[in-house]
Every structure is written in C-alpha cells, then in structure tokens.
Specification:
The complex is a heterodimer.
Chain A (H helix, E strand, L loop, with lengths): L9 H52 L6 E2 L22 E2 H5 L6 H6 L21 H4 L35 E4 L13 H5 L45 E5 L5 H4 L17 H4 E2 L18 H13 L8 E6 L4 E5 L4 H8 L11
Parallel strand pairs in A: 3-5
Antiparallel strand pairs in A: 1-2, 3-4, 4-6, 6-7
Chain B lengths: L1 H20 L8 E2 L1 E7 L2 E2 L3 E7 L6 E4 L5 E3 L1 E2 L7 E2 L1 E9 L38 E4 L5 E7 L2
Classes of the chains: A alpha+beta, B alpha+beta.
C-alpha cells in the first residue's frame, strides 16, 4: 500500500521509445522509396503518352515524325526544298510535331510553322518579345517528376549570347547510336563511324559521308522513317528516353552546364537526340579535369548523348512498338547499343 | 542488474537492425586491368581505350600516356579496373582532336588541323573492333594491344 499509482519506469519508457525509433527507421526509407516509385510511374506514363503520340502521328502520316527538321548546310539539306518549297525556314524538334497528338494542339497552333525565326527570341524587349510565349511554354507531359530543377533553363550562360530561359524537356528521341555532335568536320567522322569513308549513304541523306550523326535510329534529322524500316523489330528499337540533369563535374567546366541542354523547341541535335553508344546514366568521371584534351572532348560528346534519369539504377524508355520499359544501368553497353539501331541486324539478348 | 541487462539487450537489437539495413551492394566483380597500346612496336599516346563488357557491367576506360601505358577505371571514375568477363575493346585516337578542350564550341570546328587518326576507324565501334579481351578475377590483368593503321 506504499504506492497507489504505479507509473512507468524510465527504462520502460526508453525501451518503448527505442522500439518506436526502430520502426520509424525501418519505415521512412520505405516511404521515400514509395514516393520515388510513384514518380517513376508518372514518368513512364509521360513516356507512354509521347509514344502513343508518335504512333498517332504514324497513323496520320504513314511515317514517324522527323527527329528534327532543320536545314544545316551542307550535311542536312532541307527535305522540302527538293519538293519545291521557296525556302528552308521551317524548323522544329521532335516534340513540336507531337503536340497535336498529345492534346496540345492549341499550343501547336500558336507557332509560326513556316518561319522558325519568328518564334525565336529576336530582340528581348520585355516579357512579350516575339515567340517568348512559345519558347518558354511548359508542357508537363515532357517533364519527369524525378528530375531536379525547374522546367526552365536558368538565365543566360555568359558564353552563349543566344541562350535564354527556354523550356527544357526531359525526354529525347533516340538517334540510334549517336545524335551529337553534328559533325561533318574531319577527323571526328572516322573516329565514330568506321564505315564513313568507304560506304557512305547516298548524297542528301543525313548520314552522308563521314557524318557523326549516324542516322541509324528510328528518328533522324530531316528524315522520316516508318514502321517497316525498323527491321530489328519495333520491340527492339528505342524510340524515346530520358536525360539525367545531375552532373557536378560537367557543371564545373567553365561556360558549360548540363541543364542548358534540352531546349525542346529549339531544334538542335543536343536538344533533340540521345544515343545508345553511351551507357545509361553516364556522367563525366571525377578525374575529368586531369584527362587529356582529346579524351575530354570524347567524354563530353558522350555525356551529351547519354540517356539517364534520376530514378534509382536505370532509366525509363519508350520503344518503337509503344511499350515502356525500365532498363538497368548495368545492362551490357553492347546490348544497349544494339537496342538503339533500327536495322542493325543484331540479335537482342535478354536484358 | 535487471536494468542493465534489459538495456543491453535493447541496444543489441537496435545495433543489429541498423547493421542489417546497410547490407546488400554491388554484385559485379571487378579486377585490375593495365596494358599498353602499340603500333608497329611503337607506343601510342593519347589513345582512348574503352572496355565494353559483353555481359552486364560498367564500361571502363583510360587514356594512354606517352609510353603507351593505360590503367582502366570505370567510366564514372569511381572504381579501378574492369568487370570480370569478356570485353570488346574500343580504341579512339583522342590525340587527333587537338590540345585544347573546346566543349560545346567544338561542335562545328575542325579540331585536327589536318591531322589524320593514327589508327583505323574500325577500332572505334564494338561491332567492327577486332579486339576482345577476357578479364579474370583475383589477378592483375595485363594486355599488350597491337593495332594496325
């Protein structure tokens, strides 16, 4: 009868707190993983919409869209000039052509289809300069929720007077093994394309003699392929994939930032294409600054071509048959490379 | 006495669980790889050497120094060597791209100043390269690679 109210001892309380702590410790990572899984799912849904858009485009036009349409002399002549068009001012990227097929027709209508330069930032005279509404237009379907940073690229880079706050897509077409750089300048061609000097494509095609844009994917500059041209099988040909925007070593290069790549409306190789000759999630190595200039240039070009994502351990891909797959970054680079070509003749092993 | 025993068992449980959470990791085995690249018996500098695994694994790379010697690292720069197994070996002549790294500005510039690549372009693609090497676990792999023009 000494004590009428028996409370908890300090040890008992500590034990309870410890147990709760353990449970929370176990649960919190699971919650974070679930959140990431949800973001990854939303990302794969975005890719599905885009892949369906490509297929609807194919249904209407009997061809896949241009990887990008842009006249670049002499390697990439404008395909419409040969058909009698007065000039080559029509220019746009892959996503622009899909707008009408992903319920963004209103946006498509606002663009000057015949003259790209009218849509471009000409003279910045306040917020309403010509084309501003278009070049900064954000389309949520083209953004992966896991990717860091906002939808717009940051203020101008000092070394590039043309850069502005443009919308940056997270999804890019597959140019096959390599989409960047534009090339056509010796000696890069023979480094990348062993066939270039001996068996060039016919003149006028995007992969003319010695051009590093090999044009072996399902999407190409100034060129449209159809389902039948994917003789590797549409199931074994990558259509669209993501780019990773986290790369401190790249950002440490003076005047360069990985976030400045991907101006979706701009129609340039590095903003439209990625290639499978680089492993998934490739980032510049930590010892980049200590490497020789030539090796740095090769790795830099590799980085611009690299598929990747902020999802753990791999990236989402849309294939030409419309299927979406998450591929691990530890996939053999040889198998991954084969998945980029539309008619490489490789036998795709299991991945 | 009772208190300390309870406390000890509790602490053990906690530590055990935390340790468990840290388990699991990389399953791909790595092995050290070094070697030289030579053309007609002479060492080649500034050659970018890439090892592409034929099964799952990371790409490894290195550039050759003035004595043609290279030492591989994974292309994230985090691990030394290459993954164990068979690799296709890709060689690119980085020396022909000039002495100044140009980054984006190099897009449309002829960086070679008329220099021709010292080795054949067939070494630059996994589909055309004639070199395959097998990296074995638990030892230092040394490869002397002889190339043709």
């Amino acid at each position: 009868m000494k004590r009428r109210y028996r409370g908890f001892t300090l040890v008992e309380l500590l034990v309870v707190i410890a147990i709760i702590g353990i449970l929370v410790g176990l649960l919190l990572p699971a919650v974070q993983a679930a959140r990431e899984a949800a973001r990854r799912m939303q990302c794969s849904n975005n890719l599905k919409q885009l892949a369906l858009g490509v297929h609807l485009f194919h249904d209407s036009n009997r061809k896949f869209p241009y990887g990008m349409l842009r006249s670049q002399s002499p390697q990439f002549p404008h395909p419409e000039i040969a058909r009698g068009a007065p000039n080559s001012n029509r220019r746009y990227g892959l996503m622009h052509q899909l707008l009408s097929y992903i319920e963004q027709d209103n946006l498509w209508q606002r663009w000057d289809q015949l003259n790209f330069n009218l849509n471009k930032k000409a003279t910045p005279t306040g917020a309403d300069w010509v084309g501003n509404h278009f070049f900064r237009q954000v389309v949520p379907t083209m953004m992966c929720p896991s990717n860091p940073g906002g939808p717009l690229s940051e203020p101008a880079v000092t070394t590039n007077a043309d850069s502005g706050q443009y919308f940056r897509s997270h999804y890019y077409g597959s140019a096959g093994t390599r989409g960047y750089p534009r090339g056509g300048v010796s000696p890069r061609p023979s480094l990348y394309n062993p066939f270039a000097p001996t068996t060039p494509d016919p003149p006028g095609t995007a992969s003319g003699p010695g051009y590093t844009s090999l044009s072996d994917g399902i999407l190409a500059q100034n060129k449209q392929y159809n389902m039948a041209s994917a003789s590797d099988g549409t199931t074994n040909t990558i259509l669209i994939g993501e780019r990773q925007f986290f790369d401190p070593v790249f950002d440490a290069i003076p005047g360069e930032r990985i976030r400045d790549w991907g101006w979706v409306w701009f129609a340039a190789q590095g903003d439209n294409f990625l290639g499978t000759s680089v492993p998934i999630n490739f980032k510049l190595p930590a010892n980049f600054a200590a490497l020789g200039a030539g090796t740095q240039q090769l790795l830099f070009d590799d980085r611009i071509n690299a598929f990747g994502s902020m999802h753990t351990g791999g990236a989402n891909f849309a294939f030409a048959d419309g299927s979406i797959q998450f591929m691990s970054q530890s996939i053999s680079p040889i198998v991954f490379r084969a998945l980029g070509t539309r008619a490489g003749g490789e036998v795709a092993s299991e991945y | 006495m009772l208190i300390s025993r309870r406390f000890v068992s509790c602490a053990t449980l906690f530590i055990g669980l935390t340790a468990l959470a840290g388990c699991g990791g990389d399953k791909i085995k790595m092995a050290a790889v070094e070697g030289t690249v030579k053309l007609d018996g002479k060492p080649l500098d500034k050659i970018m050497v890439e090892f592409w695994p034929q099964s799952d694994g990371p790409r490894s790379f290195a550039e050759t120094d003035s004595s043609g010697h290279f030492k591989l690292m994974t292309d994230d720069g985090k691990r030394e060597g290459a993954s164990v197994g068979s690799h296709k070996v890709i060689l690119k002549d980085a020396g022909v791209l000039g002495d100044k790294f140009m980054g984006r500005a190099g897009e449309n510039v002829d960086m070679s100043n008329g220099k021709k690549p010292r080795i054949s372009g067939t070494y630059a693609s996994p589909e055309t390269t004639s070199i395959t090497k097998s990296v074995e676990a638990g030892k230092k792999n040394e490869f002397d690679i002889e190339v043709k023009k």
